[in-house]
Structures are given as C-alpha cells and as structure tokens.
C-alpha cells in the first residue's frame, strides 16, 4: 500500500476511504462489514438511537474513487412526540381567534 497526499491507495491505485466520524445519538454500519480503510463502493448506512430520528438528505453514503464518502453526514434529532399536543393547543387558540375550524386545519398543515 502506498500513501499519497493523505489518501490511501491499494497497489491498483484505487482510493480507499477512512472511517467516518461517529454520529451523535446514532451509529454507522458499513457494508460489506469490514474495517477501515474501506474499498470503493463500500456503503455506510446511518441510523439513530431510540427516541431520535434521522435528519438530512440521505441516510446512505458510498465510498468513492477519490477516497471520500459521497454526500454530507446526516444528524440525529430528538423526536418531539409532544409537538402535536402543542400544535393542537395552538390550533384551539387559533380557532377561537379566527372563529373557524377550516382555518385551524390549514394552520396545522402549514405548521407540521
């Protein structure tokens, strides 16, 4: 193995990817299940711990030929189950002020 410009290369000169930084409140699984450095086309799949949900564009990143993983890392956000209760309370207040159920339902659709 030759090390050039902080990118790992096999003797066949295909780049290898280093392990991705940990995700707070989540984990990363690699497929195939090997250890770093990872071969091109290795898939990194993000998931979150219980009570958290994944935010971001993608939950999968792929090791590319330039020695980097595709895309940006997602984040794990706390699931706020009580948010609907708050929205319901806000909706009741909104309905009282606007005197209409239809306006209240539109408000919920926009707010969620």
Description:
With 112 residues, this protein is α+β, with helices and mostly antiparallel strands. The chain has two domains: 2-78, Complement Module, domain 1, CATH 2.10.70.10; 80-112, no CATH class. Helices cover 24% and strands 28% of the residues. The protein has helices spanning 83-98, 101-111, and strands spanning 2-4, 7-9, 15-16, 26-31, 43-48, 52-55, 60-62, 75-78. The termini are far apart.
What would CATH call the homologous superfamily of the largest domain?
Complement Module, domain 1
Q: How helical, in percent, are the residues?
A: 10-25%
State the strand order across the main sheet: 1-2-3
Gross morphology: elongated
Percent strand: 25-35%
Helix-strand pattern? EEEEEEEEHH
User: Class of the largest domain, according to the CATH hierarchy?
Assistant: Mainly Beta
Number of helices: 2
CATH topology of the largest domain: Complement Module, domain 1
Count of domain modules: 2
Largest sheet, strands/sense/barrel: 3 strands, antiparallel
Ranges with pLDDT <50 over ≥5 residues? 1-7, 100-112
- The CATH architecture assignment of the largest domain turns out to be Ribbon
Please provide the count of β strands: 8
Distance between the termini: 52 Å
Class of secondary structure makeup: alpha+beta
Overall pLDDT metric:
74
């Amino acid at each position: 193995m030759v090390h050039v410009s902080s990118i790992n290369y096999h003797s066949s000169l295909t780049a290898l990817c280093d392990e991705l930084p940990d995700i707070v409140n989540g984990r990363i699984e690699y497929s195939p299940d090997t250890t770093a450095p990872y071969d091109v086309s290795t898939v990194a799949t993000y998931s979150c711990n219980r009570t958290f949900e994944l935010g971001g564009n993608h939950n999968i990143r792929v090791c590319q030929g330039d020695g980097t993983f595709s895309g940006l890392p997602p984040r794990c956000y706390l699931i706020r189950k009580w948010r609907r209760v708050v929205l319901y309370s806000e909706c009741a207040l909104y309905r009282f002020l606007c005197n209409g159920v239809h306006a209240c339902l539109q408000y919920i659709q926009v707010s969620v």
